[in-house]
Amino acid sequence: MACFVAPVTEAVIVTVMKHNCRKQEEKTFKSAGNSAKKTKKVTFSQKLGWLNTMLWGGSFLLVIEHIWHGEVVPWFPFLTAMMNPADIPKMLMEIASVGTTMAVIVTLIWGLIVLAYNTIEKKANAPLLSDKNAEGV
Question: In this structure, is residue 20 part of a structural domain?
Answer without folding.
Answer: yes
